Amino acid sequence: MRFCALLWFVLLFAAMPGLGQHKGRTCATELYQETLEQLQPGIKLQQQQAKEAAQQYLSQKRQGKEIRKATGPVSIPVVFHVVYNTPEQNISDEQIYSQLAVLNADFRRTNTDKVNTPAHFASFAGDAGIEFCLASTAPDGSVTNGITRTQTSSITFSANNNNIKREDRGGAPAWDQTQYLNIWVGNISNDILGWATFPGMSSSSQYDGVVLFYKTVGEPPYNPFPTQFNKGRTATHEIGHWLGLQHIWGTSNESCSDSDFIDDTPNQYAPNYDCPTGTIVSCENGPYGDMWQNYMDYSDDACMNLFTNGQIAYMQAVLHSSRSDILTSVACNGGLLARFEAETDTLIQAGEKVQFRDKSIGVKPNSWLWEFEGGTPATSTERNPTVTYKKPGIYKVSLTIANSQMSSTETQEQYIEVTPNDLTVYPVPASDYIIIEQPAHVTLRQVELLNRLGQVMLSQQVTSRKAELKTTGLPSGLYFLRISSSEGVITRKVTIIK
């Protein structure tokens, strides 16, 4: 009886979360996806659009059955945000450098354990052509080592919220996610090793990136923690998600009917844990069985060693579509890149002002030269000038930034469109068509052409500022345009000649 009670206690203790060691890999990306869907309505649509953009890129690159990758490796700037409560959690720079080396080896297939890839899978494995570098320039243009450190009173962080990514909740704020891959490192609850965001986050999102349990970062001797997840492969796995990859078995834990949507990964029933040996056949995927050596399975770090060419093609497609902004980042090379935006609408009425904002990235410039075609002033050396446009037209804007060592210029052709202040109808007289154009900020709703007897000859529903009526076939004469817009109804006389 005592033996049974003791056995029951041992089993209960082992089953309680957080009390034992990790029993197998635990990625919370799908759990975090549920969190995002609650906190950010519309995220599923954005992610679906990112998937469609990646597929479109793949379609454009296909030639027969081949997919051509970009020439040469692409480089992704990384910033590690170490959020720690105890000295042990404040991992060393050397542990982070070790993690960066693991990522570069895994994504370039220079990992020494690639010799463990079975011969029947080796032909599917490839070099992803992706490299990672620690950022050398911070968002404000200052020098950085690509590592931030934040001491927190929070004991643990969870995938059920964004606390590790929020300064007001004990975490660390993200750097511009269009220019950096943000990786948060901290003490994660419930035996979770990490999670990531799928492509499709808004460009202004502060939550995009990867989260890692601090004991998974890097490999020995720099990672001092004796677990089966101490070789840096958790980061490889989670960045695979960040670049659009699903788990190799699909979205359900036990099913042959779902998929990771990658053609050259075998259909697989469920995750594989620990370090499997031999062939594991599921979902009729014999004779070679599950690809448990894949970075997107749940095997221990020591047993992961490949991405397939299909996975690589998809990650490259994501990098050249929804995550393409990061390819222009100069955060690693200490460069300078001019960028700007208008804080107000770029479609304006004559006489309106536009506030311009310098959005340049890289090292700090010390001079700005703006050129405003059609604007007053025509040039400016202010960092964020205000410009008035007095005459209708379509104008370009140019910004050159510089410091003592380098300069960079961005020019946006046809960036500012200036409309008249009143309704415009042309040509006068008309022949085959009539253009009806409202000023900026006014939307057309319906346009009708009436003859002199008041009969409606043409009618068109409109949901834009500008409309075109085809008048081919109408006899010459005097007509009336009845124009309904967001500002009411206006009637204008028009003459049609043949």
UniProtKB/TrEMBL annotation:
**Keyword Lipoprotein in annotation:** no
Pfam hit, one: Peptidase_M43
InterPro entries per record:
Ig-like_fold, MetalloPept_cat_dom_sf, Peptidase_M43, PKD/Chitinase_dom, PKD_dom, PKD_dom_sf, Secre_tail
Q: Where is the signal peptide?
A: 1-20
Q: Where is the PKD domain?
A: 350-423
Arranged from A to Z, the UniProt key words for this protein are: Disulfide bond, Hydrolase, Metal-binding, Metalloprotease, Protease, Signal, Zinc
What PROSITE patterns does the entry give?
A: PKD (PS50093)
The organism's superkingdom is given as Bacteria
Database matches in NCBIfam families: Por_Secre_tail
Q: Which PANTHER family match?
A: METALLOPROTEASE MEP1 (AFU_ORTHOLOGUE AFUA_1G07730)-RELATED, PTHR47466
The entry sums up its family as follows: Belongs to the peptidase M43B family.
Q: What is this protein called?
A: T9SS type A sorting domain-containing protein
Upper lineage ranks? Bacteria, Pseudomonadati, Bacteroidota, Cytophagia, Cytophagales
